[in-house]
Amino acid sequence: MKFLDQAKIYLRSGNGGNGCVSFRREKFIEFGGPDGGDGGRGGDVVFEAAGNLNTLIDFRYQQHFKAERGIDGMGRDRHGRGGKDIVIKVPVGTQIMSDDKDEVLADMIRPGQRVTLLRGGNGGFGNAYFKSSTNQAPRHANPGQEGQEMWVWLRLKLIADAGLVGLPNAGKSTFLSAVTRARPKVADYPFTTLHPNLGVCYTAGQEFIIADIPGLIEGASEGAGLGTRFLGHVERCGVLLHLIDGTDYDNVAEHYRTIRHELEEYGDGLADKPEIIAISKTDALIPEIVDELKDALAAESGQSRDSIFAISSVARDGLDPVLKKMLGYALEARAARHAEMAAEAGEDLEAEDEAESRDHDGDSAQQETGGWHP
Question: What does each C-alpha distance from 24 to 79, 86, 215, 302 come to in angstroms?
Fold first, then answer.
């Protein structure tokens, strides 16, 4: 399956059905009166977060989504049926953004979460609605209200507990394949990883999700290499594992500085996330050189020498201490995220109650003024 993390789609909610102008005509009934029914409400555009999806590839083949129009009212006081909602399923972690990408309209972070983005148009009143003691034969009805339409961008940000960052060929994909059952492409040339990969790591009786993104190079924030487009997939991570190739021992401090600069240029709080530094490929180094690399990175990063790890993913050496430290940060971030989601869910319920109250008040006012049918 091809990975796609951005897509632009067109949305339109359904128009409301028209009200009907009709009069009752039956044998032996002298004064039949108006009996035109109301039009049905147009369908809504609803987004749902599906836990079994992990890419936006489906939106490459379909870009237009339209809800059903409400059915027109008919004679004999028959009201039109409401239009069916269109439910668009997206992966968990998808952001729905405005056409200019300046505003996040919805953030789908919980499996099963549903967001109504566009409301369908109200149906028009039929002439039976306007019947009164002073207007016993009304000959007019309301047309259906127009639906809403807009273009939106979908942007997928993977839900992961930990993220891997580093230069190309720093050993990120090898690390992921060593600690999880993921099988990313591994080769001895740069940019073997062209799209993010996810893996589930089991350690200390717990599990957490690791995201591997394509490598960064100097100038990535200005579009060099694959740019910083994929950094969005580690925005939600609780910790970043910064892997540095130990075999290029003359430039490890410069490599660290390069990645930190790109994280700061990208923004969105990436540079402030907890960072674990690990020297990779130490199976090709002697202990004396590893010690020198730790000293150089400690001086550059400001971390203590003992907090810098030396690992070999191929030999599976030194992985357990790194994983346990990643797990600690991941569990803390997960607990904070769950608390935030619970708070948002409570706010959503309060907002829905307020919206229902406003709709009820608005419907009463519309009925009094002869406005749109609710």
Answer: 15, 36, 74, 86
Residue-wise pLDDT tens digits, 297-336: 999 988 988 899 999 999 999 999 999 999 999 888 888 8
Q: How far apart are CA 311 and CA 248, in angstroms?
A: 15
How far is residue 99's CA from residue 91's CA, in Å, rounded to a whole number? Answer: 20
Q: How far apart are CA 282 and CA 277, in angstroms?
A: 14
Residue 228: CA count within 13 A, CB half-sphere: 19
Task: Spell out a b/e string for 41-63, using b for 16 or more CB atoms within 10 Å of the CB, else e.
Answer: bbbbbbbebbeebbbbeebeeee
pLDDT digits (tens, 9 = 90+) for 275-287: 999 999 999 889 9
Residue 297 corresponds to which tokens in the numbers above? 């990175």
Task: Give the amino acid at 124.
Answer: G
- Strands 149-156 vs 94-97: parallel, antiparallel or unpaired: antiparallel
What lies within 8 Å, CB to CB, of 140 at 6+ separation is: 21, 127, 130
Is this structure's pTM higher than 0.70?
yes
Contact, 280 vs 311, CB < 8 A? yes
